[in-house]
Automatic annotation (TrEMBL):
Database matches in SMART domains: P4Hc
Organism whose genome encodes this protein: Owenia fusiformis
Entry keyword annotation includes Oxidoreductase: yes
Pfam families in the record: 2OG-FeII_Oxy_3 (PF13640)
Gene Ontology MF terms in the entry: dioxygenase activity; iron ion binding; L-ascorbic acid binding; oxidoreductase activity, acting on paired donors, with incorporation or reduction of molecular oxygen
This protein's record includes keyword Zinc-finger: no
Entry keyword set: Dioxygenase, Iron, Metal-binding, Oxidoreductase
A GO CC annotation given for this chain: membrane
UniProt cofactor(s): L-ascorbate
Domain of life according to the entry: Eukaryota
Name of protein: Uncharacterized protein
Amino acid sequence: MPTRKRTLKPNAQQTEDDLARKYFHHELAVSRVSALSKVLIGLIIVVATFFFTKFYIYAKVEVITMVSASNNYSRFYYEVPCSKDYQEERKLFKDCVPKRCGRVVMDSVVTKQEARKLLRIVRNAMVLGGSNGGASILDLHTGAISKGNAFINIFKALESHPEPDQILTAEDFMIYKKVKDKIHSAVAAEFEVPKDKLYLTKPTFFSRLTTKPAKTIHDEYWHPHIDKETYGSFHYTSLLYLTEYMEDFRGGRFFFIDKDTNRTVEPVTGRLSFFTSGSENLHFVERLKEGARYAITVSFTCDPEKAIGDPRLK
Ligand SMILES: O=C(O)CCC(=O)C(=O)O
Ligand SMILES: [Fe+2]
């Protein structure tokens, strides 16, 4: 029996092939379109996120000059609600951990003359050191001083110096101690802590900021930070300024970062600024635009185990 091959009519076969081809192309096109649209959607999301973030950052920040260089403040006080950062320690150091948190600026605790003497100390010391980047420190307690891309010990460097008295003297340490004691009293009184329950802690150091580009992480002073987190032992941070904003340098203002506002303190020679060190006082230093900015960070703790003594010439 002749077998009848079941064949489609040429036309029908063609139509089916065409359809299959068309379908295949359609599928391919659809998958190409959907891959392309995925890429496009991804791109749109990335661009939108970028602009939103930028817009949000810029839209958010209103800058308020909280403490201006052109005014004199015998006592400026700005209260902020305390963060939860102190909860664990409240029982341990009950007379000392802040009950009330805030920011204080006092222009009459340290005299201009004392500030100028302290400025001379750090300037002299920097003859032996100085960072390659924009931030140098001098810690009279440990002897650490920035040099190049690292630190050296100033007491060691003085041993081989022909005229160490030209750099650092016993009198310098007396001035440093006198000023540090006045700051200690002011912080204790303002935050109602018995002075003998509040201890000087480390690091307590001089700083010099310049416009030099950063060479190491130690030069990057402008990052927002919380002192209690960064330094561990701090409960109260104080800053004594040794040069003046817009006189000796441009940029270099101190910024407190609040929810939708930044509040600045403009440095003035002899200006004492202090605040509770928890996350209620997130802050940064504006990048310098010109000149050199000198300050001392004098830090206090409630933990007697973290206390440090007065520095002395070794
Ligand atoms: O120098 C200043 O104004 C602030 C320095 C600072 O934030 C710090 O030492 O932790
Ligand atoms: Fe700080």
